[in-house]
């Protein structure tokens, strides 16, 4: 490229992208320039991988007013955006960095819940099901698809809040940390797919699955101690 072409190249832009409907995600910084991203679609694909979105990112919105960004040139240096699939923007206070402080706190759980957040809070780890019940929640255990080395992780869910499925998948993506990327579906041990939070059963075991096929393996037999197999949850760091 000639020096004239370099001089005419638009300057790089730095933007921060949040995950739609996730009040806990701190945002991911991206440097956008023509050398790295030739098309808007290439940028969206990178955002999908970097923020571990539960679904492929196809839209960017401004967090306060919900204006849709349609092209790379529409991105403004130093601004923040919310990444979404084909769903609508979920109105949250994405720019309020204190939102991570209410993770697992009872007072903030109540105040945020009263404001109708389209997400559910993550409750602190407890040592037994009685503690979960006292916190007003139930809990499932989740295996990672095809992984017979890692124990299941607990997935606490509130009883008094609606379980928005995109939000559940987002939390699963964070906790499972699958090699294949985002968690796209949750399966029962027999391989049937769970389609909504209302189908989840307290104390049951499930498998977090990415884009790959469900792998039917003896998860409980190999990864759950015998004294925990009879619906008593086993918690692991």
UniProtKB/TrEMBL annotation:
SMART domains: DCX. Transmembrane segments: none annotated. One of its GO terms (cellular component) is microtubule organizing center. Residues 13-95, 142-220 form the Doublecortin domain. One of its GO terms (biological process) is intracellular signal transduction. It holds the Pfam family DCX. Keywords: Repeat. It comes from the Eukaryota. The keyword Cell division does not apply. This is DCD2B protein. The gene is Dcdc2b.
């Amino acid at each position: 490229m000639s020096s004239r072409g370099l001089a005419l190249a638009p300057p790089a832009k730095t933007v921060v992208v949040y995950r739609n409907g996730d009040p806990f995600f701190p945002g991911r910084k991206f440097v956008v320039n023509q050398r790295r991203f030739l098309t808007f679609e290439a940028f969206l694909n990178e955002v999908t991988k970097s923020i571990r979105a539960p679904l492929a990112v196809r839209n960017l919105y401004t967090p306060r007013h919900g204006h849709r960004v349609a092209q790379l040139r529409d991105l403004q240096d130093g601004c923040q955006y919310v990444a979404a699939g084909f769903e609508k923007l979920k109105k949250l206070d994405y720019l309020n960095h204190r939102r991570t402080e209410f993770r697992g706190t009872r007072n903030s759980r109540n105040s945020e819940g009263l404001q109708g957040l389209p997400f559910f809070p993550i409750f602190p780890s407890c040592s037994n099901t009685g503690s979960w019940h006292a916190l007003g929640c139930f809990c499932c255990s989740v295996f990672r698809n095809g992984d017979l080395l890692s124990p299941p992780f607990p997935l606490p869910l509130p009883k008094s809040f609606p379980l928005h499925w995109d939000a559940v998948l987002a939390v699963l993506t964070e906790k499972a940390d699958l090699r294949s990327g985002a968690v796209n579906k949750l399966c029962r041990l027999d391989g049937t797919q769970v389609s909504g939070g209302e189908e989840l059963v307290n104390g049951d075991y499930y498998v977090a699955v990415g884009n790959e096929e469900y792998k039917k393996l003896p998860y409980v037999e190999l990864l759950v101690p015998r004294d925990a197999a009879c619906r008593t949850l086993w918690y692991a760091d």
